[in-house]
Amino acid sequence: MSGHSKWANIKHKKEANDKVKGVIFAKLSRLITLAVIESGSIPDPNNNFKLRFIIEKAKSVNMPKDNIDRAIAKGCGPNKLLLKECVYEAFGPCGVAMIITASSDNPTRTVNEIKSKLEQYQAKLGTQGSVMYLFKKVGVIVFDKLTCKEDDVFEFAQNVNAMDIENSEASYIVYIPFDELGKIKDNMGKLVSSSVDFEYKPDTYRDLKEVTEIKKIELMIEALEQLEDIHAIFTNIQFSS
Q1: Position 14 pLDDT exceeds 60
Q2: Element (H, E) at 33
Q3: 20 to 30 A from 191, CA-CA: which of 35, 89, 120, 208?
């Protein structure tokens, strides 16, 4: 759960669940619309990197093309939605630090909903900068070991100024500065990534060992994820085995 977005969690754990897919599609639609709005109403993904990035994510979870087209249309024209990206910093129970990303057409409503959920778990919103200094915003590119050679991945990582590479059982996970995300396509070569995303990665982690603490954090995150405006939640915790 530490440092991982809602998309990763849902995609790998609940992908067969139609209700959850509907939640994913709804939230991705908002992100697509937001990407168009923030670009000044540029609907062409070839000229709008953030839009291209979100569309690729949508396609990776089999979001229908009609859904994508409708979301793009809501970001331009006289009837476009007035969405705004929001990033909140929070202090959770057990010393957890949290970053919550959202989009909203009514930030006052959104912040009140988040506050209400946090208070139920003895957590609270922080001021700007109170938590952010504990994290780095990074791009995350995942390569499948079955289809990608280690030397090619390391060459790619060098070309995009990678900050770190994790070597898991099945994948190479490359962390790069967020500003380098727009350059990855030019440096892929023959490589094909299985996932491209971003996250707020903590500089250090806080271990949780007690079952009651772990359950409380899980319930809090699940409650926040139920809010329509929320896109992702990042924390500085890891669960000890």
Answers
A1: no
A2: helix 18-38
A3: 35
* Average pLDDT of the residues in 195-223: 88
CATH number for 84-132+206-231: choose from 3.30.70.980, 1.10.3720.10, 3.40.50.720, 3.20.20.140: 3.30.70.980
**In whole angstroms, what is the distance from residue 137 CA to residue 139 CA?**
7
Hey, how many other C-beta atoms are within 10 angstroms of the C-beta on 161?
11
In angstroms, rounded to a whole number, what is the distance separating the alpha carbons of residues 56 and 196? 8
Which part of the chain has CATH 3.30.70.980? 84-132+206-231, 134-202
CATH for 6-73, options being 1.10.150.130, 3.90.1720.10, 1.10.10.200, 3.50.50.60 = 1.10.10.200
Superfamily of structural domain 134-202: YebC, transcriptional regulation domain (3.30.70.980)
Tell me if residue 221 falls in helix, strand or coil.
helix
Angle, alpha carbons 105-111-113 (nearest 5°): 100
Report residue 148's pLDDT band, with 50, 70 and 90 as the boundaries: very high
Three-class secondary structure of residue 145 per DSSP: coil
> What distance lies between CA 74 and its chain's CA centroid?
21
pLDDT in tens, 22-72: 888 888 999 999 999 988 888 998 888 888 888 988 988 899 999 999 999
Q: What is the pLDDT of residue 11?
A: 47
Can you give the pTM of this predicted structure? Answer: 0.80
Alpha-carbon torsion (214, 220, 223, 227), positive or negative: negative
Alpha carbon of residue 134 to chain centroid: 17
